[in-house]
Amino acid sequence: MKIFLATLFLLLTTIIYANVIKTIKYKGLVHISEPVALRMLPFEVEDEVDSTLIDDAIKKYFKQGYFNDIWVEFQDGELTFNFTEKAIISKVELKGWKESDVEVMDAVVQVKKGTLYDEKKLEAAKKRIIEAISQDGKIDSVVEIKKEYLENGSVKVVFVVNEGEKIIIEKLQYSGVEGVNSNDFDTVIANKEHEFMGWFWGQNDGKMSLKDLEYDNLRIRDFYMQNGYLDAKIEKPFVRVNFDHYTADMSYQIEEGDPYSISKVTIYQVKEVVDEDKINKIISLVKGDVFNIKKFRDDAEKIKTLIADKSYAFVQVVPDLKKNKEKKTVEVVFKIMPGEKVKIRNVIISGNNRTLDRIVRRELYLGPGDMYSLTDLKDSRNAVGRLGFFDSNTIEEKRIDNNTMDLIVKTKEAATGNIQLGGGYGSYGGLLMSVGVNDRNVWGSGINVGVKAEKSQTTQNYSFNISNPRLNDSDFSGNFSIYHSAYDYNDYSVLTDGVSFGAGHRFSRYVSGYLGYGYASNSYEFASTFDTTLYGDQTYFEAYNKSSVTISAKWDNTDDFYLPREGFELSQSFEKSGLGADANFFKSRTNLGKFIGLEEYLGFDAIFRYKARLYAIIDTGYIPLAEKFYMGGIGSVRGYQSYSLSPTVSDLAAVDGIRRIGGTQTFSNSLELSLPLIPKAKMRLVTFADWGVISQDTSSMLLSNVTARGGYGLGLEWFSPVGPIQLMFANPIGSQAGDKTSHFEFTMGQRF
Fold first, then answer.
1. Residue 537 CB contacts under 8 Å (≥ 6 apart), including other chains
2. pLDDT digits over 713-724, tens only?
């Protein structure tokens, strides 16, 4: 039979050899056009062909990657190529793991809709999925590939994932530790020993992270070097896994050596561009101190910034350590290679599909023709972030040659127009809701326009406002607003109609000032049981007009408008009323906010915040009741209803036997820790503790002259598609009879 087949093939081949190709046809060809396919052939019509030429043609077609099978037919001079093309993948799904994660589909699976079905690529994707799961510390994961041929001939591919089990580190040991406390290693390593109640926040859950395992020994070594142990050797951990219970024991073998002290700090400039004394002033390492690798790196960065601010954009600071092992001392050497001075050739703005280029450019401190400065570059990035128009922004440095570079500002637009919602639920007031519409960047112009039509159980507010932070792209700003409002201050309501306008000026990168004027007509509404005689002077409850001038100054060097991670803001305003109207007082408002990003220390995007406010009002003729201060709610002390904390007087007609009369001095402050919850959804968890005090000038009618309260709780911060949202769950501290507590509040459109 074999001889017969070989003879038959020889005869067929001879037939092909014996004839000139008269026509060439293609069947089943889709991905390659016939003209292109013909150009790929090593022969043409009217040529004589042999088996070698036919084989070469088939191989060329196979290399295109589009076909499962190719065969030829030859009859009466007609050569026909037949193709069976690979199916198209019309749908790709993940089941059982990261099902809706677009980034995982792109970075891990890497099988795209519309690509050709390829078994090798699917198997490679399967391996990547298992590897990605194992990096989270899970083993024995299984991935099954299911395929379904659809009616149109395409293929649906489903990766069915059965995640393995997490390995829990039951025991973690260190051998050779003497000079430091091994408990301190937990502050730097990712893989930690399981603690009792490890599921509780702040406790170690003991879950193994394989992607961090290979770096933990380096983190421990870095900890040693922060304490002067330059010869410390930390081997990679020895891991013993119990696959029956998915637990592990780990151990590190450590050789500490001895700590080194600094014998000398040397500055060596290849080309002197800065006076050495200036460099020495910014260095924190001191002769005689124990060496600290963190200070060493920080000093190198400070030197780099100092030199780069002199336009040496490509400066290199090469640190070196010259150890004396006998004396256990080290000479610290900073070798500075400044390179050449660099000028900015061009600044390119990208990603601002809505915001005009000039809105971004006017915030930049570097432009075409300017000499490079690293500080200017960082300040430019922060200034663009403070606009609040972008989710993110970066400034890339594109080197053209040794003396010039381009700056590429990459932005990602954020939603600046939003529906502002506010509300809460209190034990007294029930559900409170308010709504408004605002756009901080109308038509990408940087102009802020807001129209509000708010109504709730405690508030009515109808207003229009417009402001421009950079009039004609200058350092001047302007604003105008007109409004009608009705606020319920628990014991009475204030109805106001007013107008205000003003102008501001930016004096420096961080400092701005403002001068404004406002006029308002105010009246009161009281419950039928409200006894005004208990308050003494009846003028407190008469309708009044207010004409006032406000002057303010603000420092702000934060890096983002909604979610700053560095810098602080400090504002001070003074308001003087009595300019031809009834109200006559002097009011001071001081606000402070400090923001510290903790990612460098904790390894994840945590943010510490401290916020404080100090308000005071001085009587220069007449202080209406509504102009005094009240505490409670988001912005002061959470856990209490807004405006509910105040000095009080006794009033038996009131539900709780007291009336709130407002304070003349108040101070409140907050400590907050914001943690990433679902980064892809821009959702964060915040823990907070508030405390505040409010007081009133001494009066015989006062039941309580000083009110001090606190609150604590958890909250959710979310950059939703319609604007930033805060959901706060709070408990009061030190509440007393008559206090109006509130365990839930939310706002929308406000800064975090």
1. none
2. 999 998 877 678
